[in-house]
Amino acid sequence: MEKKAPALSELRSVAQKMRKSGLSQIELRGNGFRVSIKYAPVSPALLPCRVPDETPALPALAAPDAVRAPFPGIVLLQHPLSKIPFTQPGEKVGKDALLGLLKVGVIYLPLRSPVQGVVEPLSVKDGDCVEYGEEIFTLRREELAA
Fold it and tell me: Could you tell me if 77 and 125 are in contact, meaning their C-beta atoms sit under 8 angstroms apart?
């Protein structure tokens, strides 16, 4: 009986099992085929994480909302190719509006508005380096802006 190369669905199943078990590499060989799968497990430091609230939550209208850096990186307040600013201080933005980008290595992460509101004067400039948790944008909720 001649062995055939594994089907794509079988290879996906192997890759999923590798991911779950933490294996980083596997090689399958048979008559006329050789498949090598390499997987670089994602470091927990690179996974998006939620910062637990250590302080009690303030009432919704009590304080402005801040957009903080989820990772250390470089803040981009304008599109890297067109140089058009994403937003300006004093501009009204909706919930989940794109305020800027955070460049982490070769990856650009979006910085989105957590609430509907008005962008306050910025605490950083385009191209500034920021550390984890550093405040980039402050938003005043629309109810307070009225």
Answer: yes
